[in-house]
Amino acid sequence: MQEENKKLSFIERMKQRAVSQQTYGGQAENTEANTGEAACLNCGAGRAKQDGLTHCAYCGHAFITTTLTDGSYIKKSDNSNS
Amino acid sequence: MGLFNWGQSQEDKQQLATFKSELDALENRLDTFLAKLDERVDVLLSGFIEEAPSVMAEDDRFGQAYYRFSSAMNGQAGNMREKLREVLEKQIEPVYYRYSDTFSVESEAYSILREWRHRCARKADEWEEQLRHRVDEATEQVERKDYEPVFEQMMNTYWQQCQSVNCRQCGANLNIKQVYYYSAYVTCAYCQTQNIFEPGAMGRDIEHTARKLAEQRSKHFMDAHLERKNEERSLYEQMHELQLTLSTQEFMTKSGPVYEQIRLLESKRIQAENEAPELLDKYYRNIFDELTKLLPDLEEHHEKFFKSLQANYQRYESKRSTNL
After folding, report:
1. B43 and A80 in contact by Cβ < 8 A?
2. What residue ranges do the domains of chain B occupy?
3. Which of B30-39, B57-66, B86-95 has the lowest mean pLDDT?
4. Does the pLDDT of residue B132 top 90, yes or no?
5. How many cross-chain Cβ pairs, A to B, lie less than 8 Å apart?
6. For A3-7, B21-25, B101-105, B185-189, which range has the lowest pLDDT when averaged over its residues?
7. 106-165 of B, contacting A, C-beta below 8 A
8. Cβ contact (<8 Å) for A31 and B51?
9. In whole angstroms, what is the distance from residue B15 CA to residue B76 CA?
10. Using alpha carbons only, how large is chain B's radius of gyration in Å?
11. Looking at residue B4, what is its pLDDT?
12. Would the pLDDT of B24 be above 60?
């Protein structure tokens, strides 16, 4: 009987550790579907699809000072790549 | 202990008896040790099977606690395997090397020693094989679940979550109509803002679960494939047994009743051998057909994946040459 208790506790200990141990890097987050945005630093508006990569469509604040050309993936007319 | 005339004198015979009893005692100790290890495995696996459902029930949706629990079980099993290896290396092998230098290779004592060493090693190997098999079986038993409701629930939750996803700029509903497996730009239809859509933990898991569901739906093909493969092997073994009973006459002329029987088995064997890879093909084809049904937008990707898998397993297909 005593031996059986001992055996049970060996599995019990294993279980307790498995349940209570913290994962390195913390608990995995269970996120829901949501949206994020890249907001303009000047006025806080969201990035617009047309020309949105270089400057803000609302206040004209320049994010990048460069002239875009047509590339394989990014076009100068629509530089959003999707 | 002379090298060439060993075993002739009375003294040598006595030494042989002591030597034998030493080997027997060691082998008995190994048997007892293996029986004790078996008991420990029984406790470990029955405890694992008993406790795993309660660990899973309290777990988060990623199964991190269960993962730690099953890792602990695997670690314990690994420890036992290491202990057994240690016993072989420290108790059995040194005895073999100690005596192997003193006996002539042709002597009776040497053959006893060699057989003893093989017997012990085989016992350990068989035990290890059995342990691996038992651990796999227990894990499979614990992890087995029906993916149909799981997948359905995931899809429902995803669509439900998508309904309340709005544009960050103007607040209009983004009207998500497809499954996104990773973050993607979704343009708002009203204000043209590029929203970064994040599908959430469940959305990212959909593809993975779909694969498991598709495998579950195609399992009968895999079972049939394995059955055919085993059948082919058993027919081959039967043929081999019959071939051993052939007389020289029958063997040379390749005729006679036994030879006819072998030919009959061979035709059945070839049929099984041809059918096994076809069934494997059907299994994988069915997986990807099911996947395309579940996630139609990934059809192109599924086809590519199927082709690469097929190329991989076909590379290792081989057939027996029986030379009848």
Report:
1. no
2. 1-144, 153-200
3. B57-66
4. yes
5. 122
6. A3-7
7. 158, 161-162, 165
8. no
9. 42
10. 31
11. 53
12. yes
> Which residue among B60, B68, B200 sits closest to A33, beta carbon to beta carbon?
B200
Rounded CA gap, B74 and B45, in Å?
10
pLDDT of residue A6 exceeding 60, the answer is: no
Interface contact B199, partner A, CB < 8 A: yes
* Contact status of B68 with chain A (Cβ, < 8 Å): yes
Cα separation, B219 vs B212, whole angstroms: 10
Residue A2: the pLDDT is: 53
> CA B295, CA A18: separation in Å to the nearest integer?
35
Instruction: Inform me whether the C-beta atom of residue B30 falls under 8 Å from chain A C-beta atoms.
Output: no
pLDDT score recorded for residue B12: 79
Contact B172, B191 (CB under 8 A): yes
The two tokens of residue B95 are: 């005895």
CB contact under 8 Å between B194 and A27, yes or no, is: no
One-letter amino acid at B95 equals: V
Region of B262 (left: φ > 0; alpha: ψ -120 to 50; beta: rest) is alpha
Measured over the CA atoms of residue B242, residue B248, residue B249 and residue B251, the dihedral's sign is positive
- Which of B68, B168, B176 lies nearest to residue A46, judging by beta carbons? B168
Q: Rounded to the nearest 5 degrees, what angle is found at the Cα of B231, between the Cα atoms of B225 and B255?
A: 135
Residue in chain A closest to B191 (alpha carbons) equals A48
Q: Taking CB atoms and an 8 Å cutoff, what residues of chain B touch A38?
A: 194, 196
**ipTM, two decimals:** 0.72
What is the tens place of the pLDDT at every residue in A33-73?
A: 888 888 888 898 888 887 667 888 888 888 888 777 888 77
Which of A17, A23, A35 is opposite residue B168, by nearest beta carbon? A35
Q: Which residues does chain B have within 8 Å of residue A79's beta carbon, measured at their own beta carbons?
A: none
Q: Which candidate from A19, A31, A47 shows the least CB-CB separation from B198? A: A31
Q: What residue ranges do the domains of chain A occupy?
A: 46-82
Q: What distance in Å separates the CA atoms of residue B154 and residue B162, rounded to the nearest whole number?
A: 12
Task: With H, G, I as helix, E, B as strand and everything else as coil, classify residue B319.
Answer: coil
pLDDT of B271 above 60: yes
Please provide the average confidence, as pLDDT, over all residues in chain B. Answer: 92
H runs (alpha helix) in B176-256: 200-217, 219-245, 248-253
Q: Structure pTM?
A: 0.76
Q: What is the pLDDT of residue A1?
A: 46
